[in-house]
Amino acid sequence: MRDAHLRHSTATLLLWQGVELVVIEELLGHAHIGATATVYAHVRLRPPGHRPPRPRPQQPHRHRLQAR
After folding, report:
1. Which of 1, 11, 47, 53 is the most buried (most CB within 10 A)?
2. Is residue 56 part of a domain?
């Protein structure tokens, strides 16, 4: 895998994870955010078919009394 492919894959995965474009710009070393936005304009915020995880129901907190 070439360096360019690794950079592109990393940036794409970061975008899918919700990392802001400004942060990705700094990581990639782009001089202007416009360069980053142009290169990654085709990337969706979430991959196709992505389903957010279901929140787990909150379990009531139970205190146990210790026998003495």
Report:
1. 11
2. no
